[in-house]
Amino acid sequence: MYTHGLNTAMTLYQNGTLSLSQAAAHAGRSPDAFVTALERHGITVRENQFRSGTADGATHAD
Fold first, then answer.
1. What InterPro entries has UniProt attached to this entry (predicted)?
2. What is the pLDDT along the chain (62 residues), one digit of tens a residue?
3. Is residue 21 part of a domain?
4. DSSP labels for the chain?
5. 25 is in which domain, residue-wise?
6. Is 9 part of any domain?
7. CA 53 from centroid of its chain's CA atoms
8. What pTM was computed for the model?
């Protein structure tokens, strides 16, 4: 069941149905772990959603 949820979440993310944080929650993983899974499966991570340091794209001051 865990793998099925991950596969479903990756498909929904890839198709643009879910955001990164939504798909990670659907898969039962942290956004970081979900990004790792996406990369391992050759799915492109939408840069505007993750690479700024947080899953939702927000930046936070120290």
1. DUF7317
2. 468 899 999 999 999 999 999 999 999 999 999 999 999 999 999 877 665 454 444 444 54
3. yes
4. -HHHHHHHHHHHHHTTSS-HHHHHHHHTS-HHHHHHHHHHTTPPP-HHHHTTSSTTS-----
5. 2-50
6. yes
7. 13
8. 0.72
* Euclidean distance between CA atoms 62 and 47, whole angstroms: 22
Give the pair of three-digit tokens for residue 19. 């955001």
CA–CA dist 1, 10 (Å, integer) = 14
How many Å apart are CA 49 and CA 39, to the nearest integer?
14
Whether residue 20 is contained in a domain is answered as: yes
User: In angstroms, rounded to a whole number, what is the distance separating the alpha carbons of residues 56 and 52?
Assistant: 9
Interatomic CA distance for residues 49 and 62, integer angstroms: 20
Total domain count for the chain?
1
